[in-house]
User: Fold this.
Amino acid sequence: MNKHVNNVAPGTTDLSRRSFLVGTAASGLVLGYAGMPGIDPASAAAPANFEPSVWYAISPDGLVTVTCGKADMGQHIASTMAQIVCEELGAKWSDMRVQLASNDPKFNDPVLGAQITGGSWSTMMNFEAMSRAGAAGRIALTEAAAAAMGLPPYFKDQLVVRDSMVSHPKSKKQMSFADIVKSGKATKTFTPDELKAIKLKTPDQYTMIGVSVPQLDIPSKTNGTAKYGIDVMLPGMVYGKVVTPPVRFGATVKSVDDSEAKKVPGFIKAIILDDKTGTTSGWVVAVAGTYANARKAADALKIAYDGGPNAKLSSQSLLDEAKRLQGLEDSGQFFVKDGDPNAAFGSAAKVVEAEYTTSINIHAPLEPMNATAEFKGDILHIYSGNQFATRSGAIAAGAAGIDPKFVVMHQMWLGGGFGRRLDADMMVPAVQAAKAIGKPVKVIYTRENDMTMDFSRPLTYQKVKAGVDGDGKLIALSHDVVSAWPTARWGIPDFLTPSVDKKGPLDSFTVNGADFFYTVPNHYVRAIKNELAHNATPSGQLRSVAPGWTFWAVESMIDEIAAATGKDPAQFRISLLDGAGKNDGGAQRLRNTLLAAMGLSGYGTRQLPKGEGMGVACVSSQERATASWTACVAHVAVAPSGEVTVKKLTVATDVGTQVHPDNIRAQVEGAALWGLSLAMYEKATLKGGGIEQTNFDSYTPLRMSQMPEVAVTVIANGEKATGVGEPAVTVIAPAIGNAIFNASGARVRALPITAEAVKGAMKA
Assistant:
């Protein structure tokens, strides 16, 4: 696994040395830093809670409140964390509650050392920590119960913990969690070594994990009490509406005429952003007493811009530059460098080459970007739903010109994220407006703001070359990936990966997936930064990130090789997944998912009508060392016009231990449909330095009427829990592309797939 992140901002801590201090404390979690203005000193007089760790507390009424340090954007991660704690703690599910954490470093991810929600990492990287937190609480409760019952300390091993009760079967004595907390006997502490030594349950002992319990966030989200960022209301709050330039990045404001805006009732001020963080460029925010009037004032502003260096660029400009860079022998850095593909190509019986492209793609979550900023004395309070509180807090501080330790992030529920809310651009206008006028300011983007200023999935260009021997065995593959580098934009060195050719760090989030589990003796993968695209279209992490484009190329090329050698594409993959060398373990799990998808779909077992075909693909994403294993069989119909109808997607996945089976299936289904949307419908284009598509009339994600049947099977095993939310995105496009070829003979190599491209390939 890549090193990723540690110490990305001031104040990050070694969580292992702070988290598991068991004892009584004043009333629950205060969202802020100790000693900050606004924290109620009366809380010290509240009834004592039992807080086995920073991750949860048990109140005197026996309710267990789990604090989730992850952003919950509909994937129910807060409930998942609670379910893991509940398993080891021995609580009743009906006693469990959840709340979202502030940006206090004590809530940092135990593995990543920061508060970040992405990469399908959350369950995988927090499973053990939350399990040990639950187990520590159970041990402390049993020891406290033994003392309160008057049992000798050695009797604690005879106690049974179940459904929020600690009982001693022999004496028939029992105490509820509530009574134990009220007794004040729970005072045990654990050193980090003691914590590590706790023996956790084995999968055969689970009673909660693997059960599809009711999600704890659903009631509040259905009755309207759940608060999203857009719902925040503060006393004295006013509204800001951003005005963004016609150029995505690099423009500057030459002048602002607010004479007409001053005629709008409640207009307060127009502020030119001075963004030292480099997050925004050429933005103005109009502030007024209501959101409607802020919009009217923004529309009335007359702003003159200098378009900057990117004002004449287009999607074609970025693609041309990508091709130029790929043609240079010294471009980029190597991510994989095994054997000598170039030498192997010279002796190969057949060489296959192809170019693959993907377009700019926009996140467009349902809840528009928003943030509310308020200064209370020296403390800046930010209210927003955000996926990267550690970095976002630092950006908010940079926008305000203050130390990050004086920023309190109030995490809200997220109305969709998908990587978009890893960025904090929405906080910059809110912070600078609040600072300028001395009042709380809420900024809400329009859909147009969000689409044109999105930190989008970048345009990519990939060239793949493969060589086979006389027996049709794959002996060499070289793969060049040219892209903007979204992670490098963050400026966090630990998120970058050392190149194998020692030419400096590279953004592995542009090439992950290209280091696949197929056995190929000679294999090169080169990551090339498209600086032009990087600057003109600052990109971000869209659901699945690199595997969303690298597997489009890899799994399409595997099919092209199979066709060139007269082999069945599924059986060809199975032969490559032999588990040799470094691929041991992973290849076998991937092969099993492929076989499961083939079996469920009936691949190869029936004759399809003319113009229909099935295609396969299998992927290991998100990252090689932390992969989930996913395969898809796509069934399509292709009309003579080139129009493609996706009839069915059959997806098999192996995500190790299943915490909540129904939630896993829902996430896999949602990911598959997102993959379908990216494969067939979504495309943004750059013209004159700006994004042309401004709303859903021109940027057209999958509609309900275009939904195919989706069949999902999840392979059950006791392996370590891995990620769920993203892998199924990556497998869909190549499976569809391969199915189109089998249905019509048309090979398409650009996403999204259009009827025109298919018809053109049919003629070719």
